[in-house]
Amino acid sequence: xxxxxxxxxxxxxxxxxxxxxxxxxxxxxxxxxxxxxxxxxxxxxxxxxxxxxxxxxxxxxxxxxxxxxxxxxxxxxxxxxxxxxxxxxxxxxxxxxxxxxxxxxxxxxxxxxxxxxxxxxxxxxxxxxxxxxxxxxxxxxxxxxxxxxxxxxxxxxxxxxxxxxxxxxxxxxxxxxxxxxxxxxxxxxxxxxxxxxxxxxxxxxxxxxxxxxxxxxxxxxxxxxxxxxxxxxxxxxxxxxxxxxxxxxxxxxxxxxxxxxxxxxxxxxxxxxxxxxxxxxxxxxxxxxxxxxxxxxxxxxxxxxxxxxxxxxxxxxxxxxxxxx
Length: 325
What we know:
Number of helices: 17
Order of helices and strands: HHHHHHHHHHHHHHHHH
Strand content: under 5%
Radius of gyration: 23 Å
Largest sheet: none
Structural class: mainly alpha
Helix content: over 70%
Shape: globular
């Protein structure tokens, strides 16, 4: 009887712990939702109710978003000293606070130290600082470093796309946007990034010739840029209705990914390892069309619903494959 009682007690303790964890996660998620909607007081209330190290970090981050930099700095420093799972994130937040206060050297030192410890977010924020200061080449390098540390850091892909757009390198702008659109979960950012992609296709015919001369010749990317110019000139993706725009984007994306499939072995660098080797699989698996409809959903939801209802099997096959990656 004692063995049965002990077993029951262990089971009850496990269930209580699971319920507690579930409740805490729920409160944290609700708090983040309030914060995303700029209702900071409600967010803080949820974090206080949740309790624990993660909640303390989320409160410090919320205070930073509220502009309470001194409070956020004090809290982030306290968390960073504890050596727990959120200490590295707290260090990055400390750097953000120091940067906001104008202490850029201190922020840079922390960003570099946190990156050396494996923080993708630290590399991302340092890249963003470099871009704001006009140091595009360095910003590109640090954005790439952020992605190499965590390929699922969606914001780093979008930042890299911005850097390459400012450098007038169309192909290198498109690739991170295509990838961002695949992994991002923020609908508003998805919509803006999709429009940015369409704009890149639309403007390629006019702006491709403005690409800056690179110190070291890059024949592979130059060749792709010429192809993009040719395709963009022959088909103007911006002048058609929504449904036809998606169809044309499918066509343009198929052309681009197929070209990469046929020629990418000439370009063994960050761009191939991070983007090309992944996207060429869409061609061989016939996934380009479901992929384009997937990324177009935030902007053309009704048209995407019509297509997915008629191509349910292909779309589900694409989603299942993606979930397995």
